[in-house]
C-alpha cells in the first residue's frame, strides 16, 4: 500500500513467483470425487511463503503435488490486484505456451491507465451497489465488506443439469427476449438465497414474516466491461476489468413474482453497465475508496475456461476454486460431466441451508 496515494501498488522487482514441490502417498482416485468442496484440496495450495515477510509475498505461488498414481495437481494462489478471471485465463494460456517452448498465446495489454478515473472525477449515476468505507484504504481496516465471521457453516453443492437450465429458461420465457443461461441460473439462486434468510427463531410470528417479505434483497455479480467501453478495451487487457452489476427486489416479489420478472431484473444489471455508467463507477471509487455492497455476490467461473487450457501434458481433468467460509459469496462453476450444466457452491448456517435446499428444489420443480 502506498500511504501517500492510498493505492495498492505492484512492486515489479523481478524476484519471480513462488514455487513449491509436494508429494502425496495417495493416488488421485483416493482423494474422492473431483467435485468441490473437498477439504483435502486445501493441502494442494500454498497461500503464503513462510520464508518471506508479509510485505514481500509474491503475487503468485505455485504448488505442484505429485500423487502415487503418477498424476499431479497444480495449486495456484494469486492476488486479485494482478488480474481478473478473464486475464487469469490468458495468464494460464501463456503459462502453458511457455511450458511447451512456444511463443506467448496472447500478448497481454498492460496499460492500466485505460481504466483511470477522469480528471476531475464525475459521478453521473446513483450507485446503491457501492459502499463508502469509514476507514481510508491506506490504513489497516477491519471493515467487513463481506461476512468472514467464524460462524459455523454447512457447505453443499447444488447441481443444475443442462435439462434443469433448459426447463428454467422455458418457465421464464417471454415473447420479446432471449434468455441467457447465466441470467436464469442467477435469478434462481437469488430467489433461494434471499428467501432462506434467517429472521429469527420464531418462524410462526406473522408480523415478522410480513416484515421479512418487505425486506429488499440486493444481488451482485461481475460484468466484464472490456467490450462495453467506448472505445472497447483490448480483449487481452491484463488487469481487473470487471465491475459489479446489481439487481434489487423485495422478498415478496422474489417469492410470488414470475421467474421471467426476476430474470429481467438480473439482465437489467448488465444492461445498465454502459461506458458512462462504468466511468461513473470508476470515478465514484476514486472519490470514495469504497467497495461493492449487497446481500450476496454470485461469483461465476462458468465460462472462464480454466479447464480448457492446453498444457503440454493435456487439459486439466478438473479445475475448481478454493474459497473458504464465505456465506455471502455463492460460486457457480462448470460440471465436469455435463458440459452445459453447472455446480452451485453454497455455504450457509445449518438452518438457512435447510431452507435454501427446500427452496432450490421447490422452485426448480414448480
Automatic annotation (TrEMBL):
Coiled coil: none annotated. It comes from the Eukaryota. GO terms for molecular function: acyltransferase activity, transferring groups other than amino-acyl groups. PROSITE patterns: PROKAR_LIPOPROTEIN. Pfam families: Transferase. InterPro entries: CAT-like_dom_sf (IPR023213), Plant_Fungal_Acyltransferase (IPR050317). Belongs to the plant acyltransferase family. This is Omega-hydroxypalmitate O-feruloyl transferase.
